[in-house]
Design brief:
Number of domains: 1
Number of helices: 9
Radius of gyration: 19 Å
Number of strands: 9
Strand order of the largest sheet: 3-6-7
Strand content: 15-25%
CATH topology: Rossmann fold
Largest sheet: 3 strands, parallel
Order of helices and strands: EEHEHHEEHHEHEHEEHH
Helix content: 40-55%
Distance between the termini: 40 Å
CATH superfamily: P-loop containing nucleotide triphosphate hydrolases
Length: about 200
């Protein structure tokens, strides 16, 4: 993977974060959040240096910055002292997004961003993704939901068995087209293509 023409070393998330990348993993509860911690701590964890002076964290600054980002994303509740596990799935996802907005990331990888959230929260997350993209952040969405991909993407890359098999225009792609590239051809498909 390259960012600004420079190769990112594999297995070095610290370097990727330092160069401006952020990640909202597929399983936010086990991989993206510390559920027993406050919202402020979950938001600030990727950028603690911003709040550290002389080896001590300024809790007031940390809470204020986290609260600003939580309010910016319409997180309910936006109280930075609340415990993260008390929030709904959609609001937990906003906490992960707030972390990377605080860090001012330039590339945001969202792996299944709406998995486990209700319909209303999905619409809110879609709106947030569109706003992030419009603000200049490069947003890469990994999703198994075709409608989600077609609604969010300017271009869609389809991978199968670890290899890129197609690149489609997000505005023009259809479900049939996505499926035709995503599903491996069978012997029957090959025979049908040969007899046409």
């Amino acid at each position: 993977m390259y960012l600004d023409g420079k190769k990112l070393p594999p297995n070095r998330p610290d370097v990727a974060i330092g160069r401006g990348m952020g990640l909202a993993p597929e399983d936010r509860k086990s991989q993206g959040l510390l559920l027993g911690w406050s919202l402020a701590k979950n938001v600030s964890i990727a950028d603690l240096g911003r709040f550290t002076r002389g080896g001590w964290i300024s809790l007031r600054s940390e809470r204020a910055a986290a609260g600003d980002k939580l309010r910016e994303l319409n997180t309910v509740p936006d109280n930075p002292d609340r415990i993260t596990r008390e929030l709904s799935g959609g609001n937990q996802q906003k906490v992960v997004l707030a972390r990377w907005l605080l860090r001012e990331c330039r590339v945001l990888l969202l792996d299944e961003p709406t998995r486990g959230v209700d319909v209303g929260a999905k619409a809110e997350i879609y709106r947030l993704i569109a706003e992030l993209s419009a603000s200049g952040i490069a947003v890469v969405v990994v999703s198994s939901e075709m409608e989600e991909l077609m609604g969010l993407s300017s271009r869609i890359l389809i991978m199968r068995d670890g290899a890129l098999v197609a690149e489609l225009d997000g505005a023009r792609a259809t479900e049939v087209e996505l499926l035709s590239h995503a599903v491996a051809p069978t012997d029957t498909d090959v025979v049908l293509e040969e007899t046409r």
